[in-house]
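[Discussion] Sanity-checking designs against the backbone

I'm trying to build intuition for which residues belong where. Below is a structure token string of 263 positions. I'd appreciate it if someone posts a full sequence so I can compare it with mine line by line.
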């Protein structure tokens, strides 16, 4: 069922301006301190014309992937409406590189930095290995974050509720708060509901990593940033994340003792 509108001409003109001025296929990402990131939920009902929305969605996806990230909410590009794009894939060590644009967002909504994370969760930095050494392919099935492919979705007016009492704590980051990460507890299992760009309603039970991504982006739409409920003593610069090895989820308990935060 299509969105009924009415179209907000001023907002649509703003989006047209963003699209007209995109660079390398991307639009600017708003950073913390901008009031648009703190506005309460504004349900999407068709305020942007259907044609402009169709043009906006692939640009938001390109912006997300090139950042790189695994999710991008409309408020993060200055649009105070309840929709987001999400996507994540597992790295395949056999990839020939041709699919880099679609897999660049791999890793964590926690890092939103694919290449560094892919290295950090492995057995070491390939740059430090001898030329004759072969690094073992990373076994995603053993990653405690419960990674799973999360195909590209446009999620409009999303909401969720937990379907179990299980929670998980891992580092997260945000494209609107670059350079730092912090540990955030999330529901492991949720029932997610959203509409797509055509207004069709979807429901799905999500678990592990896809559930974390969905929660992170949905929270953006209510004016919340992950850091609001993060473990404050876990906050780390991205440089320190990798220098001290905090990015390895298998050692999170050790990190909590060293930095003094709760899990």
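Best answer:
Here's mine. Compare freely.
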């Amino acid at each position: 069922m299509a969105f009924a509108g009415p179209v907000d001409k001023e907002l649509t003109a703003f989006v047209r301006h963003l699209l007209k001025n995109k660079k390398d296929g991307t639009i600017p990402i708003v950073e913390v301190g901008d009031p648009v990131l703190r506005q309460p939920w504004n349900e999407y009902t068709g305020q942007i014309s259907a044609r402009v929305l169709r043009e906006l969605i692939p640009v938001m996806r390109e912006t997300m992937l090139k950042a790189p990230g695994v999710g991008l909410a409309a408020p993060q590009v200055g649009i105070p409406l309840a929709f987001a794009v999400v996507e994540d894939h597992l790295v395949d060590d056999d990839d020939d590189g041709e699919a880099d644009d679609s897999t660049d967002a791999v890793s964590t909504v926690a890092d939103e930095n694919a290449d560094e994370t892919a290295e950090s969760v492995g057995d070491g930095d390939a740059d430090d290995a001898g030329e004759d050494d072969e690094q073992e392919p990373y076994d995603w099935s053993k990653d405690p974050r419960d990674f799973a492919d999360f195909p590209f979705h446009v999620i409009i007016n999303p909401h969720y509720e937990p379907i179990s009492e299980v929670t998980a704590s891992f580092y997260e980051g945000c494209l609107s708060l670059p350079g730092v990460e912090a540990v955030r507890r999330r529901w492991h299992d949720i029932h997610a509901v959203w509409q797509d760009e055509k207004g069709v309603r979807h429901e799905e039970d999500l678990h592990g990593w896809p559930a974390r991504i969905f929660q992170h982006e949905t929270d953006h739409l209510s004016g919340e940033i992950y850091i609001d409920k993060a473990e404050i003593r876990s906050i780390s610069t991205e440089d320190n994340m990798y220098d001290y090895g905090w990015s390895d989820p298998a050692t999170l308990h050790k990190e909590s003792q060293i930095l003094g935060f709760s899990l």
